[in-house]
Amino acid sequence: MGKKGKKEKKVKGADKTAAKMEKKVSKRSKREEEDLEALIAEFQNLDAKKTQVTETSCPPPSARLNASLSAHPEKDELILFGGEFFNGKKTYLYNDLFFYSIRKNSWVKSEIPNPPPPRCSHQAVVVPQGGGQLWVFGGEFASPNGEQFYHYKDLWVLHLATHTWENIKAPGGPSGRSGHRMVLSKRQLLVFGGFHESTRDFIYYNDIYAFSLDTFSWSRLAPSGSAPSPRSACQMTSTPDGAGVIIYGGYSKVRVKKDVEKGTIHSDMFLLKQDEKWSWSRLSPSGSKPPPRSGFSLAVGPAGRAVLFGGVCDEEEEELLEGDFYNDLYLYDTAKNRWFPGVLRGTKSEKKKRRRGKKAGSEDEGAETKEEEEEAVARGPTEVIKEIVTEDGTVMTIKEVIPGAQEEDEEDEEEEEEDDSASAPMVEPCPRSSAMATVRQGKLYLYGGMFEVGDRQFTLSDFYCLDLHKMDRWEVLVEMDPKTQEWLEESESEEEEEEVEEETKGAEGEEEESEDSEDDQEEEEEHPMVQEGETVTDYQIRTEQYWIKLARANMGPNAKDKKVAKVAVAMAKVFYEDQ
Fold first, then answer.
1. What percent of the chain has pLDDT over 70?
2. 221 by DSSP, 3-state: which?
């Protein structure tokens, strides 16, 4: 009894500390949020003027991250809502709504009266009742300078059959937060974790709430057992029977000194299950777990497998913070409690299987899946370093994970030498974090996200698709070149104002821009030109000293010779391919 009483006191003490911290954060951030509420109200007033639903065919959505991408429960459509974009000076938040037709490969922008205000890092879940519903909870709004935050605690439902938004006002729900996770478990929405941040304080959560789709009411669960530590941005997947959820990974940070914060990337796993009562238990999965990371994308694939893509692992060295970004794929079998890397087979390997007489049937499916998992674990991915040089000279160094090569016999190797197309590298999404992902009809769809190079952030708008049954290759639906990214440095503010003034000058300004473009073309022509019939290797060898000199000028005298040489090779290649 004594031990039990002590344990209960410890739990109560921890709850009391968390409550105090939450009250402290809430008090300090109240003034900030009141300022932002006025800005949010302006957006809502503008949206309130819209009285009719309008749908317009449009190009793909603009570059963004931390939006939601959901599969329509009844149609071959995807639904993209909200998100954020940062160009180095200003943060943009969105509440636009897009529908992507899978069959037509086309986008439609849907403007519906009285939508949720702009937000990012929210959660959206589709429910197949009433012609289909999209439920949205929480998220955050940021001031244009990105220094103030407002965390939502509102709940919305988009009725897909009637194209109407409805704000569900139900008391007793989670506090305002972003980075939380929400999934459908039978007839209720389960919300776990997340964080709340103000200018000076932050708090991470590990509480869990349930929203009943029958009674439209919130309840806070009090599971027994050892719960995950507070965190945000974890993977949360329903169990195959729908009676519980699995939590993997996530991110949190603590303040170790007054102005020093330390981040933690979690890689543990937990099961929350309801028998008679809810209870937490720790999982120890088999197979090959993903290396620690945060900002990964997640979706639920065929047979209830959890799909994890990309992410970033931040490495702290003294005062520098550098991130290694990933583009690898991992699958988690919820029934077997097993991780394995998703290795692309390639279209050529499928042909070899057919030539060898392997039959694809329901009887062999289990054995083939097992063999696939074992081979994936044994092969493992290969990590390579890729460098891209932007037009302004910024060098992007990104890690890329190339799937392990399949074993090939000598006859196939000879065929590859004869067929150049077969040996060409497969197209893959570049490494990134905070991308949007969902699965529809066994296909994984991946949109946008971001990666960083130094202090510069590249926000993406490319769009990919991968058949999770075939696992052969990524299909590019929307292509984007990261070298064209706009980035405004703080020191460019005066230049930006001058550009705005020039735009107001009308035709005179246009003439000046055309002259500038001609000057740029003249500068490009100063680079050594590619000779007719010259290969990229020949060109790099012939112009090596020129590009080394240029790279040295861009990188400074303290850059290492080896690094300069790598950048010079990359710059020469970029120029060669542009010709």
1. 71
2. coil
Identify the weakest region by mean pLDDT among 323-327, 403-407, 451-455, 538-542: 403-407
d(CA 367, CA 347): 21
* Mean pLDDT, range 206-216, rounded to an integer: 97
Does residue 413 register a pLDDT over 70?
A: no
Exposure of 236 by Cβ count < 10 A (0-12 exposed, 13-18 middle, 19+ buried)? Answer: buried
Strand partners, 399: 385
- Per residue in 522-552, pLDDT (tens digit) is 444 478 998 888 888 888 889 898 988 887 8
Find the Cα–Cα–Cα–Cα dihedral 522, 527, 530, 535, rounded to 10°. Answer: -150
Alpha helices, H only, 74-207: none
Residue with tokens 């794929």: 329
In contact, 267 and 252? CB cutoff 8 Å: no
Q: Check pLDDT > 50 for residue 6.
A: no
Tokens 């509440």 appear where?
A: 95
Contact call for residues 294 and 251 (beta carbons, < 8 A):
yes
Alpha-carbon distance of 520 to 292, in angstroms, equals 44
Predicted local confidence at residue 374, as pLDDT: 53
d(CA 10, CA 28) in angstroms, rounded, equals 27
- How big is the CA angle at 238 (ends 232 and 239), to the nearest 5 degrees? 130
Q: Of 139, 67, 55, which is closest to residue 447 (Cα–Cα)? A: 67
- For residue 167, the Cα-to-chain-centroid distance in whole angstroms is 27
What confidence tier does 16 reach under pLDDT thresholds 50, 70, 90?
Answer: low
Query: What are the E-state strand segments in 414-455?
Result: 436-440, 443-453
| Backbone angles phi and psi of 158, in degrees to 5 | -100, 115
In the beta sheet, which residues pair with residue 446? 437, 464
Helices vs. strands in the chain: H and E counts, helices first = 10, 32
Strand partners, 300: 306
Q: Which of 92, 190, 175 is nearest to 135 (CA)?
A: 190
118 with 43: CB under 8 angstroms? Answer: yes
Assess contact for 342 and 471: CB atoms under 8 A.
Answer: yes
The answer to whether residue 244 scores a pLDDT higher than 80 is yes
Q: Which two tokens stand for residue 93?
A: 């938040």
Question: Contact at 8 Å (CB) between 116 and 166?
Answer: no
**Structure confidence by residue, pLDDT tens digits, 89-125:** 899 999 999 999 999 999 999 999 999 999 999 999 9
pLDDT of 9: 44
Q: What region, left, alpha or beta, does residue 399 occupy, with left being phi > 0 and alpha being psi -120 to 50 degrees?
A: beta
